[in-house]
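Give me the 3D structure for histidine kinase.
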Amino acid sequence: MRRFLISVVLVGTLAAGAALAQSGAPLGQRLDQLSRKIGVDGVRPSKDNQDVERAGYVALAETGRKRLYDTWRVLYAYKSNQIRRRLEPWAERARAVARRDNDPALAALVDLEVKALRHETEGYRVFTDADWDRFLKHSGPDIRLMAGIERVRHLGQVGRWREAARLATELTNEAESSDEIAQPVVAELHQIHSYTLSDMGDKEGALEHMTRAAELDESDAFFIRKTERVYDIAYTAADLGALDQARRFAALHHRWVASSGDADLTTWDRYLCAKIAALSDQPQQVLGCLADAKPLIDRPERRLQIVMLRLRATALAQLGRAAAARADLQRMQAVPDTLGPRDLAAEALVKAYIDQAEGRPAQAFRELDAWRRADSLRVARDNARNVAEMSAALDGELRAKRDESRRLAEQVSLSRSLVRASVIIALLLAVLVAGGVGWALHQRRASKRLKGAQERAEAANQAKSAFLAVMSHELRTPLNGMLGLAQALRSEVLTPRQREQVDLILDSGDTLLVLLNDILDLSKIEAGKLEIAPTTGDLVGSCARLVGGYQPTAREKGVTLSFRLESAAPGPLMFDGVRVRQCLTNLVSNALKFTTEGRVEVGLACYPTDDGRVRVRLRVSDTGIGMSQETIAKLFRPFTQADASTTRNFGGTGLGLNITRRLVEMMRGEIQVESEEGRGSVFTIEMVVDPAEAVEAPDHDAADEAPEGFAALHGRRVLVVDDHPVNRRVIRLFLEPFDCELFEAENGQVALDVLAERPIDLVLMDVNMPVLDGLEATRRLRQDPRFRRLPIIALTADVMSAQIKTCLDAGCDAHVAKPIDLRNLLSVMDRCLTRTREALAG
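Predicted structure for histidine kinase (842 residues):
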């Protein structure tokens, strides 16, 4: 550890020394080093900016700050090179994504870069103080950094170098303290700062910041950005008088641009060539560089084209081509102010050369001398201001260097402290390693124990599910016989005493069935297998029909039961009708159970929310026995009632409210209760659902039809397949009023034999049977073309959702659970027969 820390300090010292040595290297050597950092030898030109285009699609598929910064790289690459035809489509794509995802930062970025392009091409006059205030202060820290680049560029262009240098240093410190995602912005801040230093005359400082920019982001920069970096090196070398190096880099720039075929880059390439030729005093070469750009220069629309026009006019005048030079001079004077101020010095120089070419050297001298005297005062004022600006800017740069030096000193001091602490750290690491080995062994043993416990828990859970499935089947089978015979018996002519006894049998069986269903629901909820399935429905109608079904019970007890809609009708809604009715059933049945006189009221209210959804409030109030606060606190626990007397007096298991609470929570709602002993209770369910499109409602509820209304059943040939004779007897009693011809089979094989011998209109197929079960028998029937349209209804005591799905997948048309409800069975049979008849007719 100690040797490692010492080596880190030595490497840092050597790196610092190398940096100092580099700063004193000859200019040509420094330019070569900078080109190597950019990686010019490994650059592969990108045709038609395909690397930028690919990066754009990847960026917009991302999210958060990663999308923001990667999109900035794409937009800035096109903005910096003033490629409007590329920037605008990407700006529209990014703006659409920002609207879709409600991303204000991405929207602000698009506005910033689109406005920045106009700002650069229209004379740095587009941004207002309000724009700068918005982007720098009110759009977040990330947009502040990106907008800061444009602000530094603006301040440098208008000669406010002191502010530009101060802001660049401030933003660079902010960006460097941010995470790695902001590194491309840090690189560009160094690059833009180099422009300011170059304008101030600090060419060495400019090259230093260019080098720093290359170190930060050139490993994965776009081809267009690498081309821009080479352009900046050539430009700076030309300004420093290193014309040979400038020509070499300009030639490299020209090869890259030519291989890419990009027309926008070609314009920059031609300007660079003309600038170096002008500084070399080669007017004929200036014209050669600008020849391909003649259409753009003749009708300039951008600042760069105006500068190229000045170079061409000056070269033409120097070569004595007065007419062409005068035409360019007129073009220069006709440039609108929106593209930038006129260059009076350049115009005066061109005019003097024209006068000389036309044989008026004295006039040329007088015009230049008059302009010189008028301009000298302006130059003196500008120089005084520029000196102050440069002094302040350089002072800010010096402070930044001092801060960097101070940070390096602090890092060295910290490294020394780390070296001294390395021995202690090594000892601590040894202790930690020893403890870690012991902890790993302990965790390994604990993991084995945990895995074993988890396997045992899963096995126990599977055993519980299997037990519940078996018990459900075994309990429902005798219940089917008991309740079926009681329903059939109730349709006979009975004495009042006999009818009362039959009703008691049915009530007891129904109570047992409710208990069985509650236990199964609770088991499915705890196992996470019960799912909420919203469908389109009429919530008002569902609640009203359910309350109406309890009216006979309420009248028998002498209790007034009412339903009231407490708001405007909501229209169709998306909700799980089965679970909502289950919750309301539990609340209404409880209210009637614990209310001996007075009333039970059910209220429904639906209100729209701000996000377009619907808030539903379902309230059940009664004037029953009420509850104390202690009872309310434990009300929703499973198998819990108010006290022992409640169970003795009113019966029940205490599962209904616990299941109701869990179902409401699964529907993302909540249930509340208010109660006072002796004065009644109020249960309130609140949840938020989605509105739905209206669907055509059926004319009537088939389950509510009277038995004699099932016209499709009359005179039908029905095969009943069940291994229990009692179950077959129950169905025979159910179907006697419809003059059905019944055939019986005790297993699936016998059913196949019966169907092979005589025509059958409908099959009632039990699932669990010996010899051949109902599912396999159904599969074999569906494979026979004769029976593909034969209605088959599965009868099973297993009501688990997986079993129901298995029945339907095997080819059954419908499913009826045991104990069989008379009306439900008749309704399903009628529906299947009707559907088959319509299919055959069609």
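DSSP finds 32 helices and twelve strands in the chain. Let me know if you want a second pass.
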